[in-house]
Design brief:
- This protein starts with a strand and ends with a helix.
- α1 (56-82) packs across α2 (88-98).
- It has helices at 56-82, 88-98, 104-114, 120-141, 147-181, and strands at 3-9, 18-26, 29-39, 44-45, 50-51.
- The chain contains 5 helices and 5 strands; from the N terminus they run βββββααααα.
- The chain is elongated.
- It is an alpha+beta fold.
- The protein has 2 domains: 3-101, no CATH class; 120-181.
């Protein structure tokens, strides 16, 4: 059975953050999966192999590490059950394949649980998905005679809504990129 360890590779540049990586070992073969998580040595507890919590960002980073470890353990368990002969490269290949398998809901709930104002994320999602449904229902409720004038008004509203929603999503994306990667 393969083993997984989380380690911090210190930077060669003094004062610069090091990189977290996962060390996989199986049948005396050792490989590494490098993450995009960068930490200073004082923010890493090498005995417990985890981040020392100083703020919400460090907690989010530790959650990402925990999710990755859980995925790796599930992959190893599944490969162990399927076949006896496998390599570390096969584990790494499956790890990269499953990275894209997370759904929006699979990310929304953990993000909600860890974010400072996370309780708002499902509410915003619910409103954002309900608005188009309500708009279509409202349109269907109007008679065919009023459809032409209503459609013209909706085109004007749609231009502004597209702009507003686009800006909001970009801001949210930048915010979460800032939290996760900087």
């Amino acid at each position: 059975m393969a083993t997984v360890k989380v380690k911090l590779r210190p930077s060669t540049v003094p004062g610069k953050a090091g990189t977290i990586y996962y060390q996989l070992t199986h049948l005396r073969q050792v490989k590494q999966i490098t993450t995009k998580i960068h930490l200073h040595p004082q923010d890493w507890d090498s005995n417990k192999a985890q981040i020392i919590f100083t703020d919400s960002t460090s907690y989010l980073l530790q959650c990402k590490i925990d999710r990755d470890l859980d995925r790796l353990k599930k992959i190893i368990y599944k490969i162990d059950a399927e076949c006896a002969n496998y390599t570390v490269n096969e584990i790494i290949e499956k790890f990269y394949q499953t990275t894209a398998d997370y759904s929006y809901f699979g990310m929304l709930i953990p993000m909600s649980a860890t974010a400072t104002a996370g309780y708002l994320l499902p509410v915003v999602f619910a409103i954002a998905t309900a608005l188009p449904v309500l708009a279509v229902a409202w349109i269907l409720a109007f008679s065919v005679q009023q459809m032409g004038s209503f459609y013209g008004k909706m085109q004007k509203v749609q231009k502004w809504m597209n702009l507003i929603v686009g800006v909001v999503f970009i801001i949210i994306g930048i915010y979460y990129c800032w939290i996760m990667y900087l």
